[in-house]
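Predict the assembly for these eight chains.
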Amino acid sequence: MGSDSDLPVMKSAAEILEHFEIPFELTVVSAHRTPERMFNFAKQADGRGIRVIIAGAGGAAHLPGMVASLSPLPVIGVPVKSSNSIDGWDSVLSILQMPNGVPVATVALNAAKNAGLLAVQILGTSDKNTLEKMKAYKLSLSEGVRFKYEKLEKTGYKEYVKD
Amino acid sequence: MGSDSDLPVMKSAAEILEHFEIPFELTVVSAHRTPERMFNFAKQADGRGIRVIIAGAGGAAHLPGMVASLSPLPVIGVPVKSSNSIDGWDSVLSILQMPNGVPVATVALNAAKNAGLLAVQILGTSDKNTLEKMKAYKLSLSEGVRFKYEKLEKTGYKEYVKD
Amino acid sequence: MGSDSDLPVMKSAAEILEHFEIPFELTVVSAHRTPERMFNFAKQADGRGIRVIIAGAGGAAHLPGMVASLSPLPVIGVPVKSSNSIDGWDSVLSILQMPNGVPVATVALNAAKNAGLLAVQILGTSDKNTLEKMKAYKLSLSEGVRFKYEKLEKTGYKEYVKD
Amino acid sequence: MGSDSDLPVMKSAAEILEHFEIPFELTVVSAHRTPERMFNFAKQADGRGIRVIIAGAGGAAHLPGMVASLSPLPVIGVPVKSSNSIDGWDSVLSILQMPNGVPVATVALNAAKNAGLLAVQILGTSDKNTLEKMKAYKLSLSEGVRFKYEKLEKTGYKEYVKD
Amino acid sequence: MGSDSDLPVMKSAAEILEHFEIPFELTVVSAHRTPERMFNFAKQADGRGIRVIIAGAGGAAHLPGMVASLSPLPVIGVPVKSSNSIDGWDSVLSILQMPNGVPVATVALNAAKNAGLLAVQILGTSDKNTLEKMKAYKLSLSEGVRFKYEKLEKTGYKEYVKD
Amino acid sequence: MGSDSDLPVMKSAAEILEHFEIPFELTVVSAHRTPERMFNFAKQADGRGIRVIIAGAGGAAHLPGMVASLSPLPVIGVPVKSSNSIDGWDSVLSILQMPNGVPVATVALNAAKNAGLLAVQILGTSDKNTLEKMKAYKLSLSEGVRFKYEKLEKTGYKEYVKD
Amino acid sequence: MGSDSDLPVMKSAAEILEHFEIPFELTVVSAHRTPERMFNFAKQADGRGIRVIIAGAGGAAHLPGMVASLSPLPVIGVPVKSSNSIDGWDSVLSILQMPNGVPVATVALNAAKNAGLLAVQILGTSDKNTLEKMKAYKLSLSEGVRFKYEKLEKTGYKEYVKD
Amino acid sequence: MGSDSDLPVMKSAAEILEHFEIPFELTVVSAHRTPERMFNFAKQADGRGIRVIIAGAGGAAHLPGMVASLSPLPVIGVPVKSSNSIDGWDSVLSILQMPNGVPVATVALNAAKNAGLLAVQILGTSDKNTLEKMKAYKLSLSEGVRFKYEKLEKTGYKEYVKD
């Protein structure tokens, strides 16, 4: 991520990776304040055995796109709604609107959790076990909703909304 | 893709996959006009050996997100600027802003080429050969720019802009 | 509705339907987390005697449009401003900008009350009694304003604003 | 509709109603240039046996909302992208963002066809025959897509895109 | 104004008119909940000796435009940022983007004070005394700034910002 | 107006003033390229007997607001959608969002005609004759619509749309 | 700056200039409330030995552009998100979208700190000492990030996020 | 600039620099396709005697910000409205909304001419001759407007608009 102020958002990606037992590194690499570090990090990533990169940043968010330009690996970009952002539009557009030749797999504003899940899905394309875990995860989403609508239908909406 | 009117945009993804010699299917699946077909397509994709899905759609573009909800595979979404779109914002936001649990790897407006490249990168995470081709592709991008700036520096901008 | 987190907004629709003595069901159906349930719900709705569907959702809100694609009934969509929404624009555009052939009757952001009223109006097109109640409701709106302007004109704005 | 310049857009609603054999009136009623006419039209509509009103307008589009305030009938609003519009946003927001108590069933920008279909669905809530026709219409949408994807899969995308 | 909830904003217009000793009426007239009242108010205004109308409303704000369509008087519109507004854009565009033939003199979001000043300026076009007061008011604005920059220059910004 | 490139838009204001037989001056005063001229123009306007100022400009449109800061007269601002504008938003917001104390009576994007009508309405607040002409003008708007809907109802929409 | 309410934002520019030991003046000059003062300030600035002007303002922010039109010096504009701003867009567009011939060097919303740094960089184009200090400053940014990522990598993200 | 497709826009900067007789280099440096080249270019610029950098790019425009992060020189950013841009917003926000510590002096969309002028003004802070030329340039802008308004006032707007 581009700044430690993004950590409260970005930690959700880490939590998903832990849940799926995917080893990962989590660090701060600023495109604007540590460009050399970003350069080295991105150039060396695939050689060091990294297979997917998740990059989150706010404002004029150049980290995901610059890493994507420097690495042949898939890069997942997380737009972060930072304090002086213009409602998050700056971050979304800076990450999403990459030119032809250099894609960034962009997820929703602040959606680090989804970035983690997308990384898992990418690894699942070549790993049966991970793919099965992803199927189970999707089932658990559906179970979570079932719990809610059963409760809602039993207690009625007036009781439910009080909780 | 959601409509054959998206084909002039989406064919760039097919061209990239052909360039990288990745086998693919290309068809029309409309979330809104053929929901059953979409359902079956998405539910069966991973069982049929498909590893990555690229879904392009315009307006209130529900195809990428719905396919992502039905399949454990990574889904790449291409927002298409269709005729009655509000400047493309509708398509971008309908694809990007997915809820927690169901990511779509969104690329830029009309960026089907980047969707193809992202699919290649995803396959490259488990295939050395594809990864090497991606490195070569990135090199070719850089060579393409070199050709241009060398010409520009030689002819001067006044001549160059006439071409 | 797509999530129980939409309930504080969506309950206003229920309250209106109770006020007009229209029987209704209220439950959670997530397009993205329970796609099969949504499918079955939407396909079976008209056969079960349901006449109008109100669907509320936030972010990339696909529920209203997907239900509309699966049912011949009129579907009223309520854009909900959820926590990581980009100011509600994502939800509004995902629901409103449906392609030709599959309309969603969209109401204002968070306007579940208006969704309830619109459902009543739709039922009123074939039920004199409901139509008369709607006329009475509109009269009550006007009376409510009269109470306010009479008070305002009597007390003066300086007193009124203190309350 | 608010102006005869909206006719090229709004005629699609008329065509749908003719297709479904629903009798209708089509005229120009301007909220801003003929407010009395609008008043009378809206106040008398339900007494004259009209059951659904479709109102299309561009810019600061007040016609749908004002008609909705004056009539107990359901009002469908069609935002029209007129010449000096700010990308259609003015029309969309002026129609959609109605206050509590006075809903307008808003469809997509320029989506008069969908307004016609929504009117048919509303009438279908009390008319079996119309409901069946709507089911048939939805089937025809799906058949239309099938024709396209079968052709696409047979000819290949390179041939298809030439047509 | 369209609702008593607009009063905390709109009272600033009243205060300005009191400051300039311009007689005025302040009341609630809802375009959507009391359309007949609005009709009568607007049609009779110039006959009753009213010379300028200030109309404030939020959301799909139709009051200023509808009053402008019904009266030959100049109408000043105040967009109000109401609770379920989409950041105020709905109100701004619903008031500003009036069609040719029916202008509304729109001021900034929530700028009821400026609406009052504009009304004073309009009356000042035919009243020397009011024009002179307006000149004095402008001078007082400039004096207010002088007080501030003199204090700032004397105390230094570090002290000033503490106050 | 701020540039002669605004003339094709701004001439509509002149045409309205001629129609109402209001004497006027029309010239180019650029806030950014001729600031002294703008200063002198604005400072001297009321002394020279001018009663209302119409100022149109595009992009970062400072002319209306600066003239308003320098003159006690009412200033009508016309946002012009110029060539490198960002969809007209820059011009609209630069003119509309004036700070407290300095109003600009803003009309719709490119709505110079409405600026002319608003000027006429302002002069009509103290001139019975002008007020009566404005009433007649409003009647003519309504007659114009009548002509159209009568034709439409007689010929049917299919014939009408061919013209 | 245009108002003393901008001081909490604009003081960051002053702090940067003090850090770099650049002498500066800080005062309030309102384009709209003190146009003469602004005129004189801008016209005399270069004659008084000022070399760079930083102008911050909110809403319809005319100060930076007007100063740029009156002075041959480089003008840095800081859009300030003021209380009744429409999310800061008004200020950003009023400062950024200057017409050809009159540039304003615009920085991010509320980015007074960056305005200060840009001023230092401009002075550094002719002052070796200042250029060296800027290099040192950039190094300190990078050191600041290093401190953070070393801590993060040592403590782990779960501990880090608690601080 | 980031691509030779930006040249039709960016050449205006070159023309201004030629007009002011400022020596310059003009080349293509792509942040995304030639990141190493960009790195070297930016790191070496101040050592090679370059004093100001103008960087133009479209879409997710990272070039200006990345160059600014790598060089102590002032960097002027030109947002370019490229073909698949979302109305230019992506480019504007990617360049403007830089984080604290790394400013980019952003000019209006496509305003390469103003970028050239800003560069001249920056050089003029330490070069009397250039400053004088800038004053003369500003005078010529004002003369250009005088020519127009004199013609307009002489011929009348009806003749003028025909040309």
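The beta strands of chain H are 53-58, 75-80, 105-106. The mean pLDDT of chain H is 96.
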